[in-house]
Amino acid sequence: MQINKGFTLAEVLITLGIIGVVAALTIPVLMNNIRNKELESRFKKTSSELQTALQKVQYDEGTTIYGNITSQKGELISVILKQFKSPAKEASRYDITVGKIKGKDIIYKNFDGVNDFYTYGLDDGTIVVNDDFFIFINNDGFQLTNQQFYIDTNGFKKPNRFGYDLFKFCLLENDKLDYSCSTYTQQAFSDKDYFKNLPR
């Protein structure tokens, strides 16, 4: 009498079903972890690049941006543009009406991802370092003593959310970036698990 040692169809289907359930539970978590790790890496890299650019302005221009270079945003943008090795370009501005950069649609959301981000800080001037790195300049009343920078750390890539890939920095007198003027930026620097714990 010959005994079949193979699996029955029911056993195969049950096994495949278990594998499917496990995959459905683990793959989204893994993808979220990969995304958050990439956001963290881009945040550290781009904030460092902006700080380096500001320090190079001091070296090249012999002065700090804070309060010394003319408050005209066109000149401010031009001196920062020169500091990047990649072919950085000035976008005329971020069009808050239609949400475009370089003619491409891009809409920013608040941290919760539900409401549009209040874009007053994005419309004074925009530096496109490359398609993966934007710098928005905001100078309240053209006063450089209240100069602010917003960095989109991954450009056109999503999620395009404040506190995820859009962060606010203020400028100190020595041209150091101040992280404390935004809760999300400060937490991203001080909390080692900030990006790890970002909601989906």
The secondary-structure class comes to alpha+beta
The separation of the N and C termini measures: 58 Å
Report the radius of gyration as a whole number of Å. 23 Å
Helix fraction bin = 25-40%
The largest pleated sheet is described as:
6 strands, antiparallel
| Uncertain spans | none
Shape: elongated
Provide the succession of SSEs.
Answer: HHEEEEEEEEH
Rounded average pLDDT: 84
Please state roughly what percent of the residues sit in beta strands, choosing from under 5%, 5-15%, 15-25%, 25-35%, 35-45% or over 45%: 15-25%
Strand arrangement in the largest pleated sheet:
1-4-5-6-7-8
Describe how the helices and strands are arranged:
Layout: H1 9-61, H2 73-81, E1 89-91, E2 100-101, E3 104-105, E4 125-130, E5 133-139, E6 147-152, E7 166-171, E8 177-178, H3 183-190
